[in-house]
Amino acid sequence: MADQLKYHRILLKLGGEALSGVDGFGVDPTRAEDIAQRVAEVRNLGVDVAIVIGGGNLWRGRAGLERGMDRATADYMGMLATVMNALALMDAMERMGMVTRVQSAVEMHAVAEPYIRRRAIRHLEKGRVVILGGGTGNPYFSTDTAAALRAMEVGADVLIKATKVDGVYDSDPMTNPQAVRFDRLSYMETINRRLEVMDSTAISLCMDNHLPILVLDLWHPDSLREALYGAPVGTLVTD
């Protein structure tokens, strides 16, 4: 089965909301276990999995900025929130028997390894799931950009952005029942049409390095597994 896979190493980008409860905030252990179960299915296929997770369920920097908070301070707080989410996800995965490592771009030795590219690759080669927290370690960069950067650093075949909808639409399908879904997009079309795939810095980084982006519904039971075999799932952004 492994020789039929289209992608053998993936970077999975999760928003912090993937871990949140019904109100959109906090960490719901049940949601963490759901994500862990999906990752376990992928690992059992022999796919190397690295994960970048956001922190929007714990801290929204925009709220601080609207009250006059310094942008760098707000961003550093967001980085710390991503590490908290990474630890929650690690715990859920290890309770399912997966060997997991959390690496943080913001060094905090008591709870996570520092991010070291060669060490992250070695973990992946040994079959460990690597969860990358702390964003890029720098303010003014989103976790989308961190995901694109880390995907290229660890040699991922694809960057998979996991969402609550089954691809990219020309408008919000939650509010517009006439919204049209795209099966494929080019990087430039995504940027020019201002489609909410990832921020422009992340898309440009992927475009310059020819890294495909796949946007899919994480919560559909089979979408992630089917995508790894090359099935037409979600929206593929390529050259």
Key terms:
single chain, about 240 residues, alpha/beta, nine-stranded mixed β-sheet, 8 helices, globular
Walkthrough of the structure:
- The chain has 239 residues and is α/β, with parallel strands linked by helices.
- The chain has one domain: Acetylglutamate kinase-like (Carbamate kinase).
- The protein has eight helices and eleven strands.
- It has a nine-stranded mixed beta sheet with strand order 4-3-5-2-1-6-10-11-9, with helices on both faces.
- Helix 1 links the parallel strand 1 (9-14) and strand 2.
- The longest helix has 25 residues, at 71-95.
- The protein is globular, with a radius of gyration of 17 Å.
Question: What's the gyration radius in Å?
Answer: 17 Å
**Count of extended strands:** 11
CA-CA gap between termini = 28 Å
Oligomer: single chain
Percent of residues in helices comes to 25-40%
